Amino acid sequence: MGPGPALLFFFILNTSGQDSAKTDWNDYAWPTEAGRIVTSTFGEYRRTHFHAGIDISSGDVQGHGVFASRSGYVSRIRISPVGYGKILYIRHPDGFTTTYAH
Description:
Layout: E1 7-14, E2 38-40, E3 54-57, E4 73-79, E5 86-91, E6 96-101
Antiparallel strand pairs: 1-3, 1-6, 2-3, 4-5, 5-6
């Protein structure tokens, strides 16, 4: 049996202490060329928690490009056998952070 469906987990954190309305939401670009099929939405109820991001389907195809949704710098990389697995944090000039996990 091969690997399961490839998904990108994506969410935005406001760590700036500013009102989220002060960011320009039009600055955000779609973070992958895999397509726009969202398989899980933000806030969706799970058995033990609420889902904290969106899952984007790759259509069971590996190798699609993944891009930062805005300019910024890599502020953290974390790899864990539990939780998000591999996760990359990108900090943006206005204090927001986008994350990308698989």
